[in-house]
Amino acid sequence: MVVGDVTTGTDVLVVGAGPAGYVAAIRAGQLDLDVTLVEKDAYGGTCLNDGCIPSKALITATDVAHDAGNAEEMGIHADPAVDLAGMMGWKDDVVDQLTGGVEKLCKANGVNLLEGTATFADENTVRVSHSGEGQGSETLEFEHAIVATGSRPIEIPGFEYDDEPVLDSTQALALESVPDSMVIVGAGYIGMELAGVYAKLGTDVTVIEMLDSILPGYDDDLKRPVKQRATDLGIEFHFGYAASEWTETGDGIRVVAEPTEEAAADGGSEASAEPVEDDTLELDAEKVLVAVGREPVSDTLELENAGVETDDRGFIQTDSRARSNVEHVFAVGDVAGEPMLAHKGSMEGQVAAEVIAGEPSAIDYQAMPAAVFTEPEIGTVGMSESEAEEAGFETAVGKFPFRASGRALTTGETDGFVKIVADEEQGYVLGAQTVGPEASELIAELGLAIELGATLEDVASTVHTHPTLSESVMEAAENALGHAIHTLNR
Ligand SMILES: Cc1cc2nc3c(=O)[nH]c(=O)nc-3n(C[C@H](O)[C@H](O)[C@H](O)COP(=O)(O)OP(=O)(O)OC[C@H]3O[C@@H](n4cnc5c(N)ncnc54)[C@H](O)[C@@H]3O)c2cc1C
Description:
Residues 11-349 form the FAD/NAD(P)-binding domain. By secondary structure, this protein is of the alpha/beta class. Helices cover 31% and strands 25% of the residues. The longest helix is centred in the first third of the chain and has 25 residues, at 84-108. Residues 15-21, 38-41, 45-47, 50-52, 55, 117-118, 148-151, 169, 190, 297, 300-301, 333-334, 340-343, 345, 373 line the site of flavin-adenine dinucleotide.
């Protein structure tokens, strides 16, 4: 069917059906608003199709194989064979279940779904172009718009994603065969998670990072066990290097990296696998994965026609109610800025819908958690010890190592700790950091503690099931109070 130049209207237009946009649309539907969700590609956005879900599925699957093959201590002797097509097929099934679920939930909440690419024509109108030859476009008028167009991988000069051996994270989550070797450019969370996946599949993985450590932004004590475990898996690191080009070698590629000015001035980073000096690095590999960060998708929307402004990185700047500089246009999720995390976008999406419905909602980032699904995992929420001190708090800090946890010992995963940071005077929990087994799950309790204004006493006096990893949270709070039972108090 050719869609002609029909003009329709909606109270709330949501552009982009990722976790920010579809959550905004569902919440708007729940609030009885007339809402239309426009998506150009696949329901669920990056998170469900190319990000959180497929990466976590592959992390789990490769963990199963790796753990089974490395459990001699438990008396298990196995040599699991991985059928990559089967593994990818299972991952795709998980994705399909979730994306199908999003579509059903939207419909069940009265959301009008429209497939196509939206561009702003003016302050109250978008053009929606339908893909496919002869599919045409239509015009949609709106009272309010919520921009939720997400982000895309940053490309670095010389490493275009169209070139076959150069992968972005999306392509790296859908390989048809296990590469013998892979260079990963970037040791942020996406690079580190995928480094673990491929190292466990048997790929020789080398990571190049411009900075002097993995996972920029995380405290050193959280990163240390992750770096150690990655090294144990055979992952090689080169810090203080920037990838500059790649060439064909006949049986693969050669990735060239130059020391960054800072690294050259330092004479090399001590964490580097090889002395940096001022040597150019040349690494032979089958594939190169570029994971140097993501940039907002705001340049394809013709935002200027609606008068919506972006900052110099392309993020739409918003206030605490998710509003852009144009009163009736909201922006949520990755396109609205850091942290680029799915749950942050979903929270902003709900707030935007509620504000449009006239509710007194506002965004609160105080208890925003983050997780890195490396081995071991990292989970953080609220303030770190140094952030709390910088904010002027006298801190009370408690720590509990997993090696003292009965449950951690029974899982064979004893690296890491739970750390809790509180206000010394009042006892309020200000933040927490954990690295270790199930850190991504454990951090939720600490987020709730911050959200509810709980004190160390509240956490310590909450009875936790035995034997569980969550007892470590209680023990860390007890440690901060000076009366932990299963570790020495500081
Ligand atoms: C490999 C990887 C792993 C990740 N792991 C995690 C994790 O474990 N936890 C976590 O919290 N986050 C994770 N993320 C980040 C997470 O995926 C993003 O933060 C999240 O998807 C952002 O949601 P969003 O709705 O803002 O945008 P997106 O999910 O990017 O969705 C935007 C949607 O808008 C659509 N769109 C864009 N322009 C238009 C247009 N003009 N018209 C119509 N539709 C349009 C796109 O097609 C897309 O579907 C990961 C990301 C990657 C790449």
